[in-house]
Amino acid sequence: MPDENPLLKEAISLGGDPDAIRAFYQGWSDHYDDDMLLAIGYVGAKIAAEALVKHVSDTALVLDAGCGTGLVGIELIKRKWNLTIDGIDLTQAMLDAARSKGAYRKLNIADMSGPLYEIDDDVYDGIVSAGVFTNGHVGPAGLDELIRVAKPGAPIVLTVRDSAWEADGFKDKIGQLEKDGRTKTLEITHSPYHTKEDIFCQLVVLEVV
Ligand SMILES: C[S@@+](CC[C@H](N)C(=O)[O-])C[C@H]1O[C@@H](n2cnc3c(N)ncnc32)[C@H](O)[C@@H]1O
Questions:
Q1: What value, to the nearest 5°, has the Cα angle with vertex 153 and ends 193 and 150?
Q2: Whose CA is nearest to atom 1 of ligand 1?
Q3: Which residues on adjacent β-strands are paired with residue 190?
Q4: For domain 6-208, is the CATH number 3.40.50.150?
Q5: Is the pLDDT of residue 209 over 70?
Q6: 3 state DSSP class of 98
Q7: Which of 137, 146, 193 is the best mutation target for the ligand 1 pocket, counting ligand atoms within 8 Å of the beta carbon and taking the most?
Q8: CB atoms < 10 A from the CB of 44, how many?
Q9: pLDDT of residue 3
Q10: For residue 64, what is the enclosing H or E element?
Q11: How many A from CA of 207 to the centre of ligand 1?
């Protein structure tokens, strides 16, 4: 297996500390897209967008949670141009890069490891989050707020990197959500993630009950 990109090694060692994450992505925002797409072969944004559009209407209101530079937004509007897409992220420079892509209605700062104070209950027809539920970023508890802000029946699509799936408690959390009758698991597929590094993820599609 090729060595993992040094920037990604640093990213997954950030320990979930919001200040460290913000500082790291602030410095990466201007070359993130090239590094991820060209050097790493990142397909997380593409597979997550592909999965979400199968489960929402053409005019759905969608939240891209941890939108970064907006790679998911671009993949969404390529497939369904009439979606309304809001994005949230911890890092201002990433949101600024997303704004320049022109795919989003609103882009706001938010910390997904805590309450999403500015978003009401039952707002979104669908939620997508690629590359955020991973080592050193947002843990499984972050799912509770995504469920709260999604409408009943809405799909929530996430990628969870293999190295975080069991070790960081995502598999257990998703099982527990299903047992508690809060979500139905529609799909869990082992998928390519960083195609130039042989790193895989679980592509998860939940439906909010
Ligand atoms: C690997 S990037 C993924 C970005 C985008 N979704 C994509 O697929 O390219 C991870 C993003 O998660 C954001 N992030 C990390 N921790 C976060 C948190 N606690 N709340 C909100 N965003 C967070 C970072 O700022 C960064 O933009």
A1: 70
A2: 131
A3: 202
A4: yes
A5: yes
A6: helix
A7: 137
A8: 28
A9: 57
A10: strand 61-65
A11: 22
